[in-house]
Amino acid sequence: MKANHLFSTLLAGTLLSLAQTAMAQGEHKILVQANKPGAAVQPTMYGIFFEDINFGADGGLYADLVENRSFEFPQHLMGWESFGSVEVMDEKPAYDRNPHYVALTDDGHLHKQTGIENRGHFGMGFKEGMEYNFTITARRHYSESPDARIRVELVGSDNEVINRKTITIASDEWKKYTATLKSNKTDQKGMLRIFLETPQGVDIDHVSLFPADNWNNLRADLVKDLADLHPGIFRFPGGCIVEGTDLASRYQWKNSVGPVENRPLNENRWNYTFPHRLYPNYYQSYGLGFYEFFLLSEKIGAEPLPVVSVGLACQFQNDDICAHVSPDELQPYIDDALDLIEFANGSTDTKWGKLRAEMGHPAPFNLKLIGVGNEQWGELYPVRLEKFIKAIRAKYPEIKIVGSSGPSPDDNDGKEFTYGWEQMRRLKADLVDEHFYRSPEWFLSQAGRYDNYSRKGPKVFAGEYACHISGSEDPAPAAEPMSKNTFNAALCEAAFMTGLERNADVVHMATYAPLFSHVDGWQWRPDLIWMDNLTTVRTPNYYVQQLYATNAGTNVLETTENKKPLEGNDGMFASAVYDKPSGDYILKVANTNATERTIEVTFKGVKSLGEGTVTSIHDGNPDAFNSLSNKNNVTPKTSKVSADGNILRVTIPAKTFSVYRF
To answer: Which residues are identified as catalytic?
Structure first.
């Protein structure tokens, strides 16, 4: 009897303990101070960062289908197949900064032909019913010869001609000629072919082919992907390409403006980072240049954030101090920064403002921010940055300057992070760019990262970040290159971002990186948006970024459980904001657990929330991802939700990020 009573007592105690544990783990009581709007959420809070990596520009966002269109690659016919009498020349060129061109001449036999073919970047994508605008700069090869003719063809992957046009070259002077060719079928891997049709020869240069639906020479579908993110900030053009493998290959913005035909070729910093193909064809035509970046910023409603070289070549690739510009020889680099601001904001009677107007934009771009240096660290950086800060503030005191804390988010690899921040405070930089490519565990542990940052001094720009699961940066070919953009990685980012939002008084900008990747030409993953020659894929990470940007609000609302932020308690993360224009209250909750959780949220100071919406992204498989064959495998879903007065009580499924809006 005593044994049975003892067993019953122990059983009852165990059940009670289990019930209490289940209650503690299964339910959360959250308080949102809805009647006390706090720190302002900056309009720049969530944005995008573009770098020409993974063929993000030529072969990606830049819509020209032709590779090596001006014959300026070091191997001048790289990207072209030639037949018959074809010769690369540079005598009396059409463009002084792109001096090479090709001469097509008769090879002296009735049944032989002369011509060239271009397969573009991983093939040319043609869409059924789409028109393609062909442009070429050409002249007759022989002075005072009869008119010459070339035949231009769109050719499918089956080698069948899709469409053709004939162009007559009637001048000894360089002139532009155009033709429009319509595709009668969809083909992922087509090509462009140019034949010489007459005994009279032709010199040709700057061969381009754009789909008619392009926006300002950019791929329309990718521009829409960016616009649908509703970014507040747009950082460009990099990234490591700002630095270059060496200073000669650094990104120079002045080479990227003016007529596109005369923008000189530049070797891409990422040219040598394909271990499975050591000598790739990765160059920058600069067709996508700073003018186009500024126009794109306007198009998508984002503040432009251009980044300029601080005189340091990529520090990962250069240990020799001689690889960098001496601090005493920085003036040309400083002038580039000052001239860039004039290009963006100067009146039309200034040198660079006049060029902007001549390119088609008389009104200023209203630039407010500039980044100096990319991912620099150590003593080499601040001594150079200081000279830029003094010069920019003397001439343009209204421009905010973004500095760098280096490539690591902490001091695990030394003291560079702390040193970088110390120097940024000393130099009074306006914002400090932090980068973190880390594991899911790191992201979940860092939701409170900015809770204890100083509220004085520079603000934070989380300029490059992405959750990397094991093997993310492996550049070897993969059957499913998007497989590292998992739902779990996106969920961990969503959980981490609640900490960005809660600390909006410290964090003013954040951008996921990298932005684009071509499925046939990637070297880094994960990436926000993937593409092939015809379509794009929005990743789960994309949808998390979109949910934050479209629900950014204007003011932080203190959100706590037991008077503490919900930043990983029992795998739960939460933040809330008020949106002044709409009057909406917005709650973001991430449940990173393998089981569901119930939350009871009290919106203090609100009489009744009424009916609202909940948008959730969820997948039972943490390794799920979107792909070309299943683009909508992981996407947000929206439904109605009701509150009881000012109390919201809901059950959040396992592995779910939800945004509630009332």
So the answer is: 375
